[in-house]
Structure formats: structure tokens, C-alpha cells
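User: Predict the structure for this protein chain, please.
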Amino acid sequence: MPRLAFFTFAILRAPRQHPDSASFLAAIDPTNAAAERAEGFLDQTRVDPDTGRHSWGEPVLPSFVAPDDAPQVTRSLSLWQDLETVFAYAYGGQHAESLRQRKAWFRPPEWPSYVAWWVDDTHQPTWDEAVTKLERLHAMGSTPAAFTFKQAFDAEGRPTEVERHRVKRIVEANSGDE
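Assistant: Here is the predicted structure, written as C-alpha cells:
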């Protein structure tokens, strides 16, 4: 059964050690924990606390990021059951609270802030793949290979829409877990 890979990308307005970034850094663990409890969540890349290595390969930067901006880059890479479950997580609960702070935390993007794409059930996406998908979305717009919620595609590559009534039910279920 296909799964949905989901990559988010942003550049912090201030360095991580700056007080303006403190509330963002404080929100990371609770937001990740909410993802892991969310309906439809399958997996996400993790950093080994002992080695500092990422579980799904070493992160890379999109070509549109200046090297000086690398320390302020923040990103996530996860796998979900379908469009509705990741949409419910992204726009409900803890993550929605974080999204309300994005203008304070992140530079205004000149690129997409996320990309979604379907993978087969045995495939584990890598950071390199995620960056390639984000760059493709930035260059070409939504296609079956790399898309947004506004112009989504199903696992067979057909245009589709997020089922809002199902999202509402999932948000309600997820909020009971927070």
C-alpha cells in the first residue's frame, strides 16, 4: 500500500542560539511527539543523540539556499498513511499552534515550505530525495511526483482533493491524544 512522504522546510529568522528562536526550539519535541501520536503517522527521521547522525541519510540543502543560511535551516521528513492524516496533523493541534508562529520564527519563503509525494510501502525516503522533490515542486509546480495539498494527487497520479470531512474527524481524534 502506498504511503505519503512529507517534507517541510524553512529558514529561521535568527540563529538557533538567539532568544527569538527559543520558542521554536521549545516547540520541536512536543510537536514531534504529537506527530507520533497522530492518526496515520507511520515514521519520521530521527537524530541519534550519541552520534548526531540522521536515520534517513545525511541532510542536504536545496540549491536555492545560500551556504551562510545553512545553520538556520529547519526541516522535517516523515511518512503518513494518506493526505488526510498528514493534513489533519499539519493544520490541527500542536502543529497548528506552531504554524501560527511561523511569521515570527521563519523568513518569508520564496519557495514551497513543504512537499508531498507517494512512495511504495517498502521505500524509505531520504533527505536527498526530499530536497529533489522540493526543488521540483519549486520549479514545476504540483505534479504527481511532487505536490501540495492545494494541488494534490492520489497514489495513481490522478488529481485529488483532501477530504475535509475526514480531516475534521481526524483532528478531533488527534486532539483527544494531546
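The mean pLDDT is 94.
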